[in-house]
Amino acid sequence: MHPLQQIMYPSSIAVFGASNNPMKMGSIQLANILETGYEGEVYPIHRSEETVMGVPAYKSIAEVDKPVDLAQLVLPTEVVPQILEECGKAGVRRAIIISGGFKEVPGEVGRERERQLLEVAAKYGIRFLGPNCVGIMNGRISLNTTTIVDPPMGGGIAFASQSGAYTAMINPYLRAQGIRMCQTLSVGNEADMDLVDCLDYLREEDYIKAVGLYVEAIRRPREFIAAARETVKRKPVVAIYVGGTAAGSRSSLSHTGAISGPDELYDGLFRQAGILRADDLDQMLDMLWILSMQPLPAGRRMAVITNSGGPGSSLAYHLEKAGLEAPPFSAGLRERLDAVTGPLTFTGNPIDLTFETNVFIFKQLLELVYESGEVDGAFIYGIFGASDFMVNLKKRFPAMQAMEEEWGKGYQEFLAGLAEVPRQHARPLAVMSLAGARSRSIQSLIDFGVPSYPSASRSARAMRALLDYRLTREALT
Amino acid sequence: MHPLQQIMYPSSIAVFGASNNPMKMGSIQLANILETGYEGEVYPIHRSEETVMGVPAYKSIAEVDKPVDLAQLVLPTEVVPQILEECGKAGVRRAIIISGGFKEVPGEVGRERERQLLEVAAKYGIRFLGPNCVGIMNGRISLNTTTIVDPPMGGGIAFASQSGAYTAMINPYLRAQGIRMCQTLSVGNEADMDLVDCLDYLREEDYIKAVGLYVEAIRRPREFIAAARETVKRKPVVAIYVGGTAAGSRSSLSHTGAISGPDELYDGLFRQAGILRADDLDQMLDMLWILSMQPLPAGRRMAVITNSGGPGSSLAYHLEKAGLEAPPFSAGLRERLDAVTGPLTFTGNPIDLTFETNVFIFKQLLELVYESGEVDGAFIYGIFGASDFMVNLKKRFPAMQAMEEEWGKGYQEFLAGLAEVPRQHARPLAVMSLAGARSRSIQSLIDFGVPSYPSASRSARAMRALLDYRLTREALT
Fold this sequence. Notes:
The structure is a homodimer. Chain A is α/β, with parallel strands linked by helices.
């Protein structure tokens, strides 16, 4: 069993640094462990308190007379090696060291302390994440050891990061987009385990469908490439790298003590590793989202189905800019489409329904274009609920409330059916919508497995990532 | 007075096509006019109903025995010219024609109908928007004639668009970002008034600080360039163009009946016009947002102030990628910064506060870097409220509720003060935050005039737009 498997699935956790003073980072993390739904045992370790946040506390790890799978330490830097030693003596073999003040601070003291950690760990066979990290989140067991509340758990995305902020502070952004996250791992200074270990671990977890990495420096390039290539044979890996400019590099050095390299070097490294490179965190999530949910396209040919001209033109433009194609449909296919849409609709690709208010035909049209074999994937604009039309109408026509509810039920069925079409035809679908995850319809569609992007360019680049992954995987196997 | 001034500020509106059947587009638009807070007179015109949605209705425009500043028509195509004629006879001189079925549909019939509209308009001196548009929104008088509810009104952004969907469906996207919109104009087929008119009108409205355009085709390039250049001398103009690929062009043709040109042609046209080009709607809004609120930078030198390494490195990287610079600070400035942060913080630019929990020092640091004269603008990451830390803590420490409220007041003052610093020093500030507009802190900061972007790349490209506008304007004047 991979040591990270044990860190991510502990049956019991000892928490150092939590107290009855809520203004401590350890207290915030303990509150999150206790309130997120984790069902394992939690043992606060505190020198003087009988209980911490109502949970029985122990004076030291030695006093916990039960097996402890994982220790999380948020303590003043200078005591961390000693406490880790106490953990080792007490039989604890896995740890997350949150505390900073090690290799990332200038000078010899920090480096020396990090060496001490490694000595202690070697002596007792302890494997650990950190130091200088923010903890982990595992939605499979409702475990959140970070300082930030309410991760939207679920789905098939995992994210391993050399930035702690990105793994934890990401939660509100994920919620706003409607993206769920399955697991996050903050690796901090990587004194013991690093992104290579994360790749080895995440490769074997079959429910993880796509892996994201935030990289400031790769310390073991050869092992990284090997681990990534093995992973990419089974699931896509997308990375962000921001060390490749003068200021970016200066910042990384002060942050994780890692020496970064020029952009081109990392471009080459990612290419060799089979990793897709994202420009930034938002783009990485856009890519991981569709990669974790949709089938891969066999080629570049895309259909666009829209009920509005502007978004349709934007999709057509941006998919071509992203290196995909929107081929004109054959006369035969247009005839079949016209039979559904009526003669006034332009069905040449984009299919522009304009004033068509019966959104249910989106599903039929999608089936027809997939069945034709003329496209390898599709974009839809125009999936939205009635709410943006009805809010003011309902004030004037109270009877519409019941109508909306009735219609809403039919709409849910439609969305569930629509989301099945890509799977049935093994062709991907991306939705573009300005309504966003606050719209019940869009949230349902997402829950049924279709990602929704707020712009044409973001939809197109995400779709392109699916193609890039297919091509990359083929080249590797 | 520009005819668009009269269309945007009517004291009275006649609405054709609304009825007591809520499932009509005209009914949705009337409900929005009635429920958004518009204080002018509204006259539904309906052949048979005594009242429409409780408002007294008139059998024809001739029966409205009061001045009508504006008529909005959502009627079957074939009756539109005749109704417009009736409006002309009744003295109405401004109109918005929502109905489609004109030049944008294939064949001679549509073109002929559009010619009829122009004949009628010429005969009576009617100036109109459309046909084939969705209406207008003017936050200054709480007027929303579109089908979509709840535009987040305010601020200084105006948007004129050849896509109706983009002007109306944009509302939920704006709300999610925290962006307010002052005015939108959907120009449709531009049979009478076009984007040139919009530029002429918006140039003179001093409260409009930045103008966005969605372009599928420019029908009067010479006039467009002249109007834009005059506008750009007074306020920035940002355009999206999506006609420049094969499928994009095919889609535009079917949508507005306009013939588009290659990307490079439009690139050149926008450059001549002094217009900044955005890649897509989301990027256009990112640019307009900061352009409408922040001072212009004198040069490329940027400070980054962060409390997290990853976002700090990302900002440093992306601002350099965007053609800006993050110069290392002088020894003197670092000394002054160190006096605020303490010796353990890296203050070399980025300033990385890491574990500093006192966010209030952000303001002092910003003042110090601006006062130094060593930078022309700044980015901040790390402005967020307590909510993401406190939600679970409060379940364990109920007393924290009062504490949070107390702290929240001080925080509001801090945010108001912080937002003043860019104005006082005539240097722009952009905030990066993953918390988004759902966070009370971020929403406050936005309300105080500082835009907040969810990623480093988006922040950096927005800041770059400020510099580009300054350079463009200098070249024009």
